[in-house]
């Protein structure tokens, strides 16, 4: 009897795991069930061929599966990068009194064009799809950072996807021999094409795809909104804590000059290396050398392929995709960087982009604040995030009359250390994904706000409207600067940066 029960249990287990699969190109992609049995996951699924050898600094080639089975049971290597994003997580952990050693940089490789999928275990068809694009200044980050593992979000009845894309010098390179650039953007577009073509195989609706991104991920969304190559690949967008690309002109000269500097520095005979010669250089050597040269970071350029004109011009003329939009920023985007070395680097970077020279009078526009620390945070958060985001919101809602909802994430956690951190850059992410780290002071109030934000985001994915029973979130109207504040209490308000933004005249 016991033997028969054991055999039956084994058969049930085998059947459960055999159901955690889908097939692409006649290859069975085998995933796994979460320990709580609420979700299934498919981790490290390749969407393009490895961009190595001759494919380095080339447009991604769609992945062709050649094996009978592919086990998608672990995360793939992250793309080539430095410690930047690890330092960010450690900085947040230290800020809240947590252990900074809780995170370390994952394995990195040029072979990194993979995505991760989570779906409810009791799957059904035509589920909304949420595709998250990570941040990290286009220099760092990976698709399975602690803040946005997608299992809890997927358990609410959607398909959650996170994607990796080439970073730094491998994702943004403007060597004169190259006819195309913006390889990171091309990677993201390639991933979206894969999702569009295959997501129905795991129960997702290819006609209901919402792209979302934070920081540099949101900046990449701005480029997706104006790129001809991404037309028809998504239906809605969520833009979190970015916008600065509206405030500066895309500069082709500096990236091209730096590309030649890199080609010369890696040479042994004082002659700049050709692109074919550069493709033979060890990736670690390229990464280290590039970090010495590309001080200001990486951004998309006008390559007449993926990006054909400046982003602001595209938004001004209505040359962007017809999608509904959630957009917003956090109250204290710059606070955690002030008074440390990374802040100095951040300011120098932004100054070089030329986005501070439009401000008329910092002091008069920030004199409602109590101290210099708050003033600097207010000024830089307004310039880099709030004001350009309002410009995007105004254009989307007025030029093509699409539905836009603007938020301000103002919630500060409890405790003295939390007050020092404020509503920091990236603070909203654990609320969206329900991924609050153990060292974060998470109260019942935070748990309630998590439920509210999650349900609002989910409703937007499902219906195009983020309103739920608990909130009344008015649609954005141009030039009104009215937002929904996610704080201890939800309330609609005129954004504190209104006068400042009007002075910038973006």
Tell me about this structure.
It is globular, with a radius of gyration of 23 Å. α13 packs across α17. With 506 residues, it is α/β, with parallel strands linked by helices. The chain is built from 17 helices and 14 strands. A hairpin with a 4-residue loop joins β13 and β14. Helices cover 36% and strands 15% of the residues. The strands form two sheets. It has an eleven-stranded mixed beta sheet with strand order 3-4-6-8-7-9-10-11-12-13-14, with helices on both faces. Strands 1-2-5 form a three-stranded mixed beta sheet, with no helix packed on it. It has a single domain, classed as Alpha/Beta hydrolase fold, catalytic domain (Rossmann fold). It starts with a helix and ends with a helix. The N terminus is likely disordered.
Please give the structural blueprint:
Elements lengths: L1 H17 L2 E4 L2 E4 L1 E2 L5 E8 L22 E3 L12 H12 L18 E7 L6 E7 L17 H4 L4 E5 L4 H4 L11 H16 L5 E11 L1 H11 L9 E5 L12 H13 L9 H4 L4 H11 L17 H7 L6 E7 L10 H13 L8 H4 L6 H28 L4 E6 L6 H6 L7 H5 L10 H20 L18 E5 L4 E4 L3 H7 L2
Parallel strand pairs: 2-5, 7-8, 7-9, 9-10, 10-11, 11-12, 12-13
Antiparallel strand pairs: 1-2, 3-4, 4-6, 6-8, 13-14
Helix pairs in contact: 7-9, 13-17
Low-confidence stretches: 1-18
**CATH hierarchy class name:** Alpha Beta
Average pLDDT, rounded to a whole number, is: 89
Termini Cα gap: 77 Å
What's the number of helices?
Answer: 17
The total count of strands amounts to 14
CATH homologous superfamily title = Alpha/Beta hydrolase fold, catalytic domain
User: How big a fraction of the residues is strand?
Assistant: 15-25%
So, CATH architecture? 3-Layer(aba) Sandwich
Task: Based on Cα principal axes, name the global outline.
Answer: globular
Fraction of residues in H or I helices = 25-40%
Q: What is the fold-level CATH name, i.e. the topology?
A: Rossmann fold
- In total, the number of domains comes to 1
How many strands, what sense, and barrel or not for the largest sheet? 11 strands, mixed
């Amino acid at each position: 009897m016991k033997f028969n029960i054991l055999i039956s249990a084994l058969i049930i287990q085998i059947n459960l795991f055999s159901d955690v699969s889908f097939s692409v190109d006649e290859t069975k992609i085998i995933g796994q069930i979460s320990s709580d049995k609420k979700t299934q996951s498919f981790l490290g699924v390749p969407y393009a061929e490895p961009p190595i050898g001759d494919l380095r600094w080339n447009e991604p080639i769609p992945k062709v599966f050649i094996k009978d089975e592919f086990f998608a049971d672990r995360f793939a290597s992250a793309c080539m990068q430095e410690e930047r994003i690890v330092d960010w997580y450690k900085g947040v952990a230290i800020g809240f009194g947590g252990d900074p050693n809780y995170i370390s940089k994952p394995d990195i490789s040029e072979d990194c064009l993979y995505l991760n999928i989570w779906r409810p275990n009791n799957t059904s068809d035509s589920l909304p799809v949420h595709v998250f694009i990570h941040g990290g200044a286009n220099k760092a980050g990976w698709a399975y950072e602690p803040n946005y593992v997608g299992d809890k979000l997927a358990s609410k009845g959607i398909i959650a996807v996170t994607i990796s894309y080439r970073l730094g010098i491998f994702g943004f390179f403007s060597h004169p021999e190259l006819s195309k650039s913006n390889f990171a953007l091309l990677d993201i577009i390639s991933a979206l094409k894969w999702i569009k073509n295959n997501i129905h195989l795991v129960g997702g609706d290819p006609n209901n795809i919402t792209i979302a991104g934070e920081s540099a991920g949101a900046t990449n969304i701005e480029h997706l909104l104006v790129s001809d190559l991404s037309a028809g690949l998504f239906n809605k967008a969520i833009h979190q804590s970015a916008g600065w690309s509206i405030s500066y002109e895309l500069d082709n000269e500096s990236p091209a000059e730096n590309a030649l500097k890199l080609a010369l520095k890696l040479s042994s005979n004082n002659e700049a290396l050709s692109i074919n010669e550069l493709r033979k250089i060890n990736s670690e050597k390229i990464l280290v050398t590039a970090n010495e040269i590309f001080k200001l970071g990486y951004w998309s350029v006008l390559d007449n392929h993926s990006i054909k004109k400046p982003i602001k011009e595209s938004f001004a003329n209505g040359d962007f995709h017809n999608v509904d939009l959630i957009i917003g920023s956090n109250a204290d985007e710059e606070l955690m960087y002030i008074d440390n070395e990374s802040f100095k680097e951040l300011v120098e970077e932004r100054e070089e982009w030329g986005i501070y020279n439009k401000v008329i009078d910092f002091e008069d526009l920030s004199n409602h604040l109590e101290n210099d620390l708050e003033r600097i945070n207010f000024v830089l958060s307004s310039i880099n995030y709030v004001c350009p985001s309002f410009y995007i919101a105004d254009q989307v809602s007025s030029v093509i009359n699409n539905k836009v909802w603007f938020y301000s994430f103002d919630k500060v956690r409890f405790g003295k250390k939390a007050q020092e951190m404020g509503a920091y850059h990236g603070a909203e992410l654990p609320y969206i994904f329900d991924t609050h780290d153990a060292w974060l002071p998470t109260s019942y109030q935070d748990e309630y706000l998590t439920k509210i934000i999650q349900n609002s985001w989910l409703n937007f994915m499902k219906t195009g409207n983020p309103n739920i029973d608990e909130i009344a979130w008015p649609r954005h109207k141009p030039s009104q600067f009215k937002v929904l504040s996610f704080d201890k209490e939800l309330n609609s308000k005129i954004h504190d940066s209104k006068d400042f933004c009007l002075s910038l005249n973006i």
